[in-house]
Amino acid sequence: MGGVITALRFQKRSREWVNVHIDGRFAFAIPAAEAARLHKGQELTDEEIARLKAIRLEQKAFERALHLLRYRPRSIAEVKDHLRSHRVDDAIIQRVIERLQRIGYLDDKAFARFWVENRQQFNPRGLYALRQELRSKGVPPEVIEETLAAMPVDEEAVAYELISARRQRWDKLDRSTFWRKARGYLARRGFSYEAIDAALQRLWAELEADRESPDIDIEYES
Q1: Torsion angle, CA of 40/17/10/25, rounded to 10 degrees?
Q2: pLDDT tens per residue, the chain (222 residues)?
Q3: CA–CA distance, 7 with 67 (Å, rounded to integer)
Q4: Of 2, 33, 114, 172, whose CB is crowded by the most CB atoms within 10 A?
């Protein structure tokens, strides 16, 4: 059936989109770059109209993905899940993913590196937790292992730094209570048992040494 383009008008809120009117009535909106290929009086077939509508849907999905990526890097799976939650067709999602990959906005390897670096800088985690978090983001297992191999985490050192920062709140505890609280604190952050035990042994030895070496008041002669 098709129809004839009777008007092409920029949207009031965005000159990146053009409203297409067919046979005197608004039909759909398309990106301005696509509208530049059209002209008033042009006849469109049903197939051409369907193609233009598909372009509109893809561009809307692309912009939705870009909006999501404004806040932080994302894994491919995260972007797919986000678009599916907005009922975007799988074929369109795949085209959007490919566009984002071509311009360097989506890369699971880069995302995994970002995640590990960010965690270790602002909220340290053990290897188990890092693996679980990356898996929950949909990062492929081989990418996770490659990333962790390239960015080794000294679990014992990180675990010690974490509990050492809390030593003032634990320095009056007995050994059993200290062990329970500190072990739970590190276990919840995904550290291995070996790293936890080593860090606890080290800090407990320091706490005991501090208790056995009380401050000495020194008097100076006037």
Answers
A1: 50
A2: 789 999 999 998 888 999 999 999 999 998 999 899 999 999 999 999 999 999 999 999 999 999 999 999 999 999 999 999 999 999 999 999 999 999 999 999 999 999 999 999 999 999 999 999 999 999 999 999 999 999 988 999 999 999 999 888 888 889 999 999 999 999 999 999 999 999 999 999 988 887 776 555 555 554
A3: 30
A4: 114
Q: What are phi and psi of 137, to 5 degrees?
A: -90, 0
Query: Is residue 49 one of the residues assigned to a domain?
Result: no
Note whether 138 and 75 are within 8 A (CB). yes
Residue 12 burial (CB count, 10 A): 8
3 state DSSP class of 135: helix
Domain presence at residue 71: yes
Measured distance CA(70)–CA(211) in Å, rounded: 51
Total number of domains in the chain: 4
Tokens of 42: 């042009």
Determine the structural domain holding residue 162 and report its residue range. 154-212
Question: Hey, is 202 helix, strand or coil?
Answer: helix
Does the predicted TM-score (pTM) go above 0.85? no
Same-domain pairing of 180 and 208: yes
CATH number of the domain at 175, please. 1.10.10
